[in-house]
Specification:
Helices cover 46% and strands 5% of the residues. It is elongated, with a radius of gyration of 27 Å. The longest helix has 31 residues. It is built from 15 helices and four strands. It has a two-stranded antiparallel ribbon. It has a two-stranded antiparallel ribbon with strand order 3-4. Among the domains are: 61 residues, no CATH class; 154 residues, no CATH class. The structure holds heme C (7 copies). The site of one heme C has 21 residues, from α7, α8, α9 and α12.
Length: 327
């Protein structure tokens, strides 16, 4: 038996290391594109020298001294996160008024109107694959939008200084889940943020999902939007959040062969068949396998190979016996 397997075991890791290497190189080159220019980084430091950390300094001309003050938490921008975000190539003043270069900032700037996503991305061919117009329509009919009109806008979930695409670029389902759920929990687990929009008491999310067995595991493996948003074939990430009465509660919606997850969380992976490594391969190898979706790819492959070898062995054995018997 062992002699049958050894050649496979030797070949498989090499093939994988090579594939893995190839893909890592690809992702490195992809990431290397559109980096922020050094000049942009330098200009942004004019803002980030104050907004980049928890304290800032300015000269008080009245007393002639340098004053150190604490920066308000909400106005601190993390450099690393900003330069990893979708809009990393931007100057602060591409979105904010150039008049912010003076301090104290002129009071009227508080009233400055902000761009909406659609102002820049609407009707742009380069972003057609994201379907901004469709997302806009979906969002308009969501529970957030219908209950809160324009107070609730795209920036509420897409932090202007940190948002980056995940669902389309991240390899690990769990990372996507964590990133996307953090967006919702930003309000639904934070009473001060939630109450910026309503005077209602923020319902306790953990209590409200008591009925879900193994809640922690579910929240790590599925996104809030899987149960709370209506899927739309034409867009990758559903934006139409439904009222709570319409949320998915039935286990078989996910735990079945035609799991809704195939049309939502696993959609991109299934479309792209980028089944390199990791747990979503369980889905691709066997669509019905949601619970076992975190099966290890290598284990799956090795067991397939072992199965093949065994079948092969039996076939040879059988043929040999037939030949022997004929003799
Ligand atoms: C000397 C420190 C300092 C510098 C430099 C600075 N800011 Fe500020 N900024 C502050 C402080 C403090 C606040 C909060 C108080 C206020 O609103 O004036 C603030 C507030 C803001 C706000 C929020 C205003 C509001 O009320 O909504 C924006 C936007 C802003 N800054 C953008 C910028 C941009 C863009 C730059 C660079 C062109 C910049 N800032 C440079 C200290 C600074
Ligand atoms: C892609 C556009 C965009 C870029 C680039 C951008 N901002 Fe903003 N910024 C916004 C929007 C939109 C808001 C308002 C968010 C909201 O209302 O929720 C905002 C809010 C702010 C605030 C106020 C935060 C608050 O909650 O009160 C500060 C301070 C700020 N930006 C500073 C900066 C600095 C400094 C940079 C550069 C490092 C920068 N911004 C780059 C779009 C941008
Ligand atoms: C001021 C104009 C402007 C606004 C406002 C704006 N964007 Fe962008 N966005 C851009 C530009 C330009 C790029 C390309 C940046 C680059 O290639 O470095 C971009 C990149 C992106 C990307 C990445 C595209 C890719 O292929 O990697 C996404 C996703 C995105 N924006 C979503 C949004 C969303 C969501 C909003 C609103 C919450 C928004 N943008 C608001 C101009 C804008
Ligand atoms: C209730 C929260 C929420 C609101 C409001 C929201 N989004 Fe999103 N959006 C998300 C989440 C979560 C994702 C998934 C992020 C990821 O993992 O890439 C997403 C992803 C996206 C993407 C990337 C989709 C892709 O194909 O990769 C775009 C574009 C986008 N949103 C645009 C918008 C626009 C435009 C608005 C306003 C009309 C908006 N969003 C409002 C939560 C929200
Ligand atoms: C900016 C804060 C904020 C973010 C981010 C946010 N929500 Fe909400 N959400 C609210 C508020 C406020 C309400 C209450 C609306 C009302 O009834 O007035 C609400 C209501 C809801 C409801 C409806 C509950 C009902 O009474 O029917 C659901 C479901 C929901 N949110 C899910 C989500 C999901 C899923 C996400 C992430 C994709 C998300 N929310 C992101 C603030 C937020
Ligand atoms: C497995 C499906 C599922 C997942 C995952 C899920 N929910 Fe729910 N959620 C429900 C159902 C069903 C209800 C309705 C419960 C009820 O009627 O009491 C609900 C209720 C809610 C409510 C309304 C609470 C109230 O009574 O006002 C909010 C808000 C909410 N969920 C947010 C979230 C957020 C945020 C996440 C992600 C961290 C999430 N949900 C994940 C199915 C789910
Ligand atoms: C939104 C889709 C979804 C819904 C609805 C859902 N589940 Fe799950 N469930 C999952 C996913 C994804 C996993 C994690 C699979 C994995 O990685 O093993 C999981 C895991 C589980 C596990 C743990 C399995 C293990 O390997 O330990 C149990 C038990 C479970 N679900 C039962 C239920 C029950 C009972 C319900 C209905 C009350 C339900 N689920 C509703 C998607 C869902």
């Amino acid at each position: 038996m062992t002699s049958l397997f050894t050649p496979y075991f030797r070949k498989v890791p090499v093939a994988f290391i090579l594939t893995f290497f190839f893909f890592s190189m690809m992702s490195i080159t992809l990431k290397a594109q559109n980096k922020p220019k050094d000049e942009t980084i330098k200009i942004n430091e004019d803002c980030l020298k104050c907004h980049g950390q928890s304290k800032y300094k300015y000269n008080n001309p009245e007393s002639g001294t340098e004053v150190t003050k604490r920066m308000y938490l909400e106005t601190i921008i993390n450099r690393t996160e900003f330069y990893e975000s979708n809009h990393k190539t931007f100057k602060c003043t591409d979105c904010h008024s150039a008049d912010y270069d003076t301090f104290p900032h002129p009071g009227r700037l508080r009233m400055e109107s902000k761009y909406a996503c659609i102002d820049c991305h609407g009707g742009d061919e380069a972003y057609a694959k994201f379907k901004f117009e469709d997302i806009e329509t979906e969002f308009q009919s969501s529970v957030h939008s219908t209950k809160h009109s324009d107070d609730f806008n795209c920036w509420m979930c897409h932090n202007p200084h940190t948002y980056k695409i995940n669902a389309r670029s991240d390899e690990k389902i769990r990372d996507i889940v964590a990133y996307d759920n953090a967006i919702c929990l930003n309000c639904h687990a934070d009473i001060t943020k939630y109450q910026m929009l309503t005077d209602k008491v923020n319902p306790n999310i953990l209590q409200k999902h008591d009925w879900l067995p193994n809640q922690a595991l579910h929240f790590k493996n599925v996104r809030c939007i899987e149960c709370h948003a209506r899927t739309n074939d034409s867009i990758l990430v559903a934006h139409n959040i439904q009222p709570k009465a319409k949320a998915v509660r039935r286990c078989v919606e996910c735990h079945s062969t035609n799991s809704i997850l195939m049309a939502s969380l696993y959609k991109y992976k299934v479309q792209e068949e980028r089944s390199k490594a990791g747990f979503y391969n369980g889905v691709i190898m066997n669509e019905g396998y949601v619970i076992g979706a975190n099966r290890n790819y290598y284990l799956g492959l090795i067991s397939l190979i072992m199965f093949g070898c065994v079948a092969f062995g039996i076939a040879i054995h059988a043929t040999l016996r037939i030949i022997k018997r004929k003799k």
